[in-house]
Specification:
With about 90 residues, this protein is an all-beta fold. The protein has a single domain, classed as Sandwich (Immunoglobulin-like), CATH 2.60.40. It has no helices and 8 strands. A hairpin with a 7-residue loop joins strand 7 and strand 8. The chain is elongated and about 45 Å long.
């Protein structure tokens, strides 16, 4: 399970699209875009029923998280996340 929890620091509600990519491994099944609605200064969570898998002997799995506010001109947020404690072995 992959859980994304975001906090809205703005004094207005936000509708955000979240997408993930994996490097040095993969996400099964590949998640589509997730949408989160956040009340002003509130939080929201998104649970994705996925498995993170990396090949044996590879560096930590890197997840790229991209956030984009819908209906706004804000620059999308981009964050790299490194995960090292995962099952190994890709077919």
């Amino acid at each position: 399970m992959l859980r994304l929890r975001l906090r809205n620091p703005e004094p207005r509600p936000l509708l955000v699209a979240a997408s993930f990519d994996a490097w040095a491994g993969r996400i099964e099944p590949r998640p589509g875009v997730g949408y989160l609605y956040m009340e002003p200064e509130g939080t929201a969570s998104l649970d994705l029923p996925v498995r993170l898998i990396k090949p044996e002997g590879e560096p930590p799995l890197r997840l790229d998280l991209r956030l984009r506010e819908l209906h706004a001109s804000l620059t999308p947020a981009y964050q790299k996340l490194y995960v090292s404690d995962l099952p190994t072995g890709l077919p």
